[in-house]
Specification:
Layout lengths: L1 E8 L2 E8 L10 E10 L1 H6 L11 E3 L3 E8 L10 E5 L14 E4 L4 E3 L6 H24 L6 E5 L4 H12 L3 E6 L5 H7 L1 E6 L16 E6 L3 H10 E9 L13 H6 L2 E4 L7 H14 L9 E5 L4 H9 L6 E4 L10 H6 L2
Parallel strand pairs: 9-10, 9-12, 10-11, 12-13, 13-14, 15-16
Antiparallel strand pairs: 1-2, 1-4, 3-5, 3-7, 3-16, 5-6, 6-8
The structure holds NADP nicotinamide-adenine-dinucleotide phosphate.
């Protein structure tokens, strides 16, 4: 089958479309015919030399896929079921979704709600799953709908979906972006106003900034997260989900001990089954209220993935890049056809 393979030998990185064999890591693995995949920031890290994210010298990349179960012994995922596949080691330490087929354990699969097409499942993808998990975490914490919710890295996959979901749920989302030329697009996605990246640093000379945000979803990390903590209202929370600027966090305890703010960690990768179910159920409920088409930056084939990964690496996208690994129906992989006579 056709696949996008990342390999590194003696420090030399190669990314290329190849014919690959397909095989289960474990006999219980489920085979999914991939209709769409999506490009995530993590894929750009996987497809980098000396990557600390990729844990194999050679693998099919892609941390996301949606499609149809093609072979399964699991009654929860019968042949023909529509699923999203993401999380765990997918595309990081085992073959991923940039291919015509992917094998995955059942715990990486989520049945798609009827309201979410295979296409829209990858407009959502890991990015949208993370955005929804972040919003639900803020709500569990008691998100105040009368105030403003800050979203950083707003034109990115997680950021733009967070804005979309916050708006569809009745919240006022403020988009922080380093791409002012995309302001109109962000307003159309549901942002109530736009601020620059540097505007997050309110009163940097003081220990605490003014109380500005009822909640925040942060894709950026580093100094940005420090300034968000200083600017949360009393008892508000920030959902920390990204590190595009920096994985480091240097801050102080004043926001925690004088304003009772909370720092909530979001991890889509190892989300337990109950969380996956809740998040996909919430995505299924919100989907009819969302216009997914404008969230698609572009749709590419496997042959265009190298340049798509460069765009993500350089922050030159808005919303999501979708991947269509095949232009039509693909027969079962050769080795399986032989097995089936
Ligand atoms: N916790 C989890 O489980 C989880 C799941 C998915 C993703 N993530 C993380 O979430 C982050 C966002 O992922 P994504 O897929 O949305 O990435 P993305 O589509 O590449 O978007 C990242 C956005 O961040 C902004 N940005 C880029 N470089 C920046 C910099 N140096 N300083 C400040 N802002 C910068 C840009 O938006 P503007 O131009 O609008 O500022 C860019 O569009 C990544 O760190 C990713 O690893 C975590």
């Amino acid at each position: 089958m056709r696949s996008f393979v990342v390999s590194e030998e003696e420090g030399v990185l190669t990314c290329e479309v190849r014919e690959s064999d397909v095989g289960p890591g474990d006999p219980s693995d489920i085979l999914v015919a991939v209709e769409f995949s999506g490009v995530n920031y993590k894929d750009a890290l996987v497809a980098s030399a000396h990557s600390r994210v990729r844990r194999l010298p050679l693998l099919i990349a892609g941390v996301d896929a949606s499609g149809t179960v093609a072979q399964s012994n699991d009654s929860n995922f019968p042949v023909g079921a529509r699923v999203a596949v993401h999380g765990g080691d997918l595309g990081v330490a085992r073959d991923g979704g940039f291919a015509e087929y992917v094998y995955a354990p059942a715990r990486y699969l989520s049945p798609l709600p009827d309201t979410v097409s295979n296409h829209d499942a990858m407009v959502i993808g890991t990015a949208g799953f993370t955005a929804m998990a972040s919003m639900l975490a803020l709500e569990r914490h008691g998100l105040d709908a009368t105030g403003e919710v800050l979203v950083t890295g707003a034109t990115g996959g997680v950021g733009s979906l967070a804005i979309t979901f916050l708006r569809a749920s009745g919240y006022q989302a403020v988009a922080s972006t380093g791409s002012p030329e995309e302001s109109q697009w962000l307003l159309e996605r549901g942002a109530t106003r736009i601020i620059g990246r540097e505007e997050i640093a309110d009163r940097p000379d003081r220990v605490l900034a003014g109380e500005r945000w009822s909640g925040a979803i942060d894709c950026v990390g580093g100094e940005t997260l420090h300034h968000i903590l200083r600017s949360l209202r009393c008892s508000a929370a920030v959902a920390a989900c990204g590190l595009v600027a920096s994985p480091d966090l240097h801050t102080n305890v004043y926001p925690f001990i004088t304003r009772a703010v909370s720092l909530i960690g979001i991890d889509a990768v190892e989300a337990p089954e109950a969380t996956r179910r809740k998040v996909w159920a919430a995505l299924g409920e919100i989907a009819p209220k969302v216009d997914f088409a404008p969230l698609v930056d572009r749709t590419v084939g496997l042959d265009e993935l190298t340049s798509a990964l460069d765009l993500i690496r350089n922050g030159k996208t808005r919303g999501r890049i979708l991947v269509k690994p095949t232009s039509g129906d693909v027969p079962l992989p050769h080795e399986l056809l032989i097995g089936n006579d």
